[in-house]
């Protein structure tokens, strides 16, 4: 049985309820990073809660303009979802989309297109062409192509 201090549980819960990452205070970003490190140590890197915390940490970093720091976290989230859920699971498709967004924000349009390569087709096949993620993926792909990414 693992030990999870009350403060750690509270921090993890508040992160999962995060609505506007731009309002996350700087001290909370540091606490979130320490909480993520502790979750990795206690639960492992592939544990669902660790992966969720990593995703939220990446979103917070990205929203604060720290995209180069966020990218490796988005990549690890994608890899964890691919390993545990498979390449066509909705969570995996969303992780691909978020990684492509981060590449766009970093000005890496070609890398964003590479990440999105199968996402549009897979999202349409799995979720339906009218699903919000399928539509957003098509729009992002068009944006990246238009900006010279491919």
UniProtKB/TrEMBL annotation:
It comes from the Bacteria. This is Tetratricopeptide repeat protein. PANTHER family: AAA+ ATPASE DOMAIN-CONTAINING PROTEIN-RELATED (PTHR46082:SF6), ATP/GTP-BINDING PROTEIN-RELATED (PTHR46082). Gene3D superfamilies: Tetratricopeptide repeat domain. Pfam families: TPR_12.
